[in-house]
Design brief:
By secondary structure, the protein is of the alpha/beta class. It is 31% helix and 18% strand. The chain has 10 helices and 16 strands.
Length: 306
């Protein structure tokens, strides 16, 4: 639908709904339920320089207020992803965003540069916010100087727009956002999971083998809305918002806070049809609250934006 379309750096979105990285794999299982071409875009699972098997199990657990995970960036490696997963997604004529991860700055650069081998990926999402790996990930996402440095170096080697995925596990999210914007980021993805932990009472041990994990789901939505609201007032680059979206009303709330598009994560596990259902429901919700398009709603919950 025309009123759902949105243009972002590198991305001509037919609608603002996409699955979040790590919650959708590479789309193969979901493609058995619906046409992935209905989506605004697909953000692939993280890619590292070589294959990773992730953390020991158990690495996913339900809590009373959301899901904990410590997958640990399991993936087949960037070369294999380009060889097998990108062509699969390309067949659906949907914009593809590659999530780039690493243990060192050099690995981030190498992975980003490798994606130059294909012209089928439309943008990169720089994952400096994974809380579940011992090296890399959140190590870069909690220090503005380190985040800016890896952003700048990836921009130097990549042919693609770079969206930097920010961690909520910081004391000043605005400082992080401004640092990567100055370093050349074309957009932001926010937020990643909140660091959490749960104890299994019978064994008196942590539920996850990794002990701690990332909390996702509806419980973190107010945190995401607050952080997007704060960041939107201080940066000029677009934001892909995420964190606990389960309804079209939630999508509108993210738009009002300042997001230009949204990514849906944990809800895909409860309802594999959640993304197409949101796409179908969003026009009526926009109309109900007085907006003629997605673009008309962006930032309208922020007073300074009028």
């Amino acid at each position: 639908m025309k009123n759902l379309a949105m243009d972002l750096p590198g991305l001509n979105l037919k609608n603002p709904i996409m699955p979040a990285s790590g919650c959708f794999g590479f789309g193969r299982e979901y493609s058995e339920f619906y046409d992935l071409g209905e989506l605004g875009a697909v953000i692939m699972k993280a890619a590292t320089g070589s294959e990773r098997f992730g953390n020991n199990t158990p690495r996913v657990a339900e809590t009373s207020s959301g899901m904990l995970n410590a997958i640990g960036l399991q993936n087949p490696g960037v070369e294999k992803i380009i060889e097998t997963e990108v062509p699969f997604l390309e067949s659906f004529n949907v914009p593809i965003i590659a999530n780039v991860a690493g243990s060192t700055v050099e690995e981030y650069i190498a992975v980003a540069e490798t994606f130059n081998q294909t012209d089928k990926v439309n943008a990169l999402e720089l994952n400096i916010s994974c809380p579940n790996v011992k090296e890399g990930g959140i190590q870069f996402g909690t220090d503005p100087d380190m985040a800016a440095n890896v952003t700048r170096l990836v921009k130097q080697v990549s042919n693609l727009p770079v969206y930097v995925k920010l961690s909520p596990n910081v004391s000043d999210i605005v400082a992080m956002a401004k640092a990567v914007e100055v370093a050349g980021a074309d957009g932001l993805s926010m937020i990643n999971t909140l660091s959490g932990m749960q104890i299994h009472l019978p064994s008196k041990r942590p539920l996850l083998a990794n002990k701690t994990g990332g909390l996702s789901g509806a419980a973190i939505k107010p945190v995401a809305i607050r952080m997007i609201y704060e960041v939107k007032q201080q940066v000029s680059i677009p934001i892909i918002g995420m964190g606990g979206i389960t309804s079209a009303e939630d999508v509108l709330e993210f738009l009002l806070a300042g997001a230009s598009a949204v990514a849906v994560g944990t809800a895909n596990f409860h309802n594999p049809f959640i993304c197409p259902e949101l796409i179908e429901a969003l026009p009526e919700v926009l109309y109900k609250y007085g907006f003629s398009s997605v673009e008309a709603a962006i930032g309208k919950g922020v007073p300074s934006y009028g």
